[in-house]
């Protein structure tokens, strides 16, 4: 349970530990592990009802990225700086930020041990550590990305800007886009950058010289049929080759060669020459989390009730965002819709009640197709759950404008301050109170 030291002393200890010492003990009412989209948005809500010392956010990064903008950065419509703010300016002022990493979780003792050697005791914990990019899982990939080659990736702030450089110099040959054999965040992004490349090449009269191919490990182009139908049509019209169940297994950047396996016949490998290779890396929850078998399921995700986001065994533990086992599409839009559920349900548990709010699996994916966008919105059942009262499964210019200009503001100003819980309320208004 808690370290029972007086609050004043506790604060002093905490301040010291922020600077120099090791093996300090911290205690708090709510610990948020990870200050990304979900963690920061929920911490902002808690900061309105808790004291600074009662709310600890454990987050190692100096910068917070609005990752949905990475796609547009790769396509040349934005710069990396547009997606980045200092973590200290994004986290609520009324919380204690520990710039450190969770190393070991001990849910039986209500403690987390950190990389710098500290121990944090909590009453309630929200795990929000997201997904890690595992470029290292594909032989030759990191070597290719770490020097300026024709290999690129919008997924990391480290590599995203290079994507546009590769695109600008692409004149002829093969442009190949991949989707890995693992869960990913924003499952639409691997094909959005493919459409942006196609659009750019057409605009610069080079499309006829370049063969564009999208190789996905999935058996489908997109999980929601209504949008998948629209995307297949788009690929046919734009002459984009789509290969399903096709997984990148090796990159030989010095020869501009990529090796793919057929997931239905793993012994069948194909070597392809490329002039541009855009890689979406395999992803996984951080090892510090996935190695804890009490907290996570077999796939390494925090084992929660998909409706309440409460841990199945530890009632004082919740998860939000990409690291949770809830089977929704991993997006910031989903994390936004989860914040209210998590906040209200954690509050209920703190008062001795049962969690009441239910998350419906809402996720959204603005599928940028050039200077237009198909705004996919759907729920756990993979049924469209659209905000606007018209069919969103088609390319609409207004949706692109929303994605580029409106959504970043909504993220920084509302979601990061705890005021955005997803569009459910607007959806009801737009549909005159009918439907979900
Ligand atoms: C290219 C790209 C395009 C995308 N496009 C969209 C889009 O159009 N729409 C959309 O809604 N979503 C999109 N997303 C997905 C969206 O960014 C994520 O789903 C969202 O950020 C998930 O939030 P999260 O809080 O779970 O994880 P994150 O925001 O990734 O935050 C996780 C945090 O945990 C921290 N952390 C990690 N390990 C530890 C540890 N051991 N201890 C403490 N802290 C730790 C990390 O430093 C990080 O700050 C996109 C993502 C990418 C990469």
Question: Which structural traits does this protein have?
Answer:
436 residues, alpha/beta, FAD/NAD(P)-binding domain, 3 domains, 7-stranded mixed sheet, 5-stranded parallel sheet, 12 helices, disordered N terminus, binds flavin-adenine dinucleotide
**SS-derived structural category:** alpha/beta
Unreliable stretches, pLDDT < 50, 5 or more residues? Answer: 1-17
Major sheet: size, sense and barrel closure? Answer: 7 strands, mixed
Mean pLDDT: 94
Strand content: 15-25%
Report the radius of gyration as a whole number of Å: 22 Å
- What helical percentage do the residues reach? 25-40%
> Which shape, going by the Cα principal axes?
globular
Number of helical stretches of at least 4 residues: 12
Provide the domain count. 3
CATH class of the largest domain: Alpha Beta
Oligomer: single chain
CATH homology-level superfamily of the largest domain: FAD/NAD(P)-binding domain
According to CATH, what is the topology of the largest domain? FAD/NAD(P)-binding domain
GO molecular function: FAD binding; glutathione-dependent sulfide quinone oxidoreductase activity; quinone binding; sulfide:quinone oxidoreductase activity
Subcellular location: Mitochondrion
Cofactor: FAD
Pfam families: Pyr_redox_2
Give an account of the 3D structure:
It contains twelve helices and 21 strands. With 436 residues, the protein is of the alpha/beta class. It has three domains: 191 residues, FAD/NAD(P)-binding domain; 151 residues, 3-Layer(bba) Sandwich (FAD/NAD(P)-binding domain), CATH 3.50.50; 68 residues, no CATH class. Strand 7 and strand 8 form a beta hairpin. The chain is globular, with a radius of gyration of 22 Å. Flavin-adenine dinucleotide (FAD) binds next to helix 2, helix 3, helix 10 and strand 20.
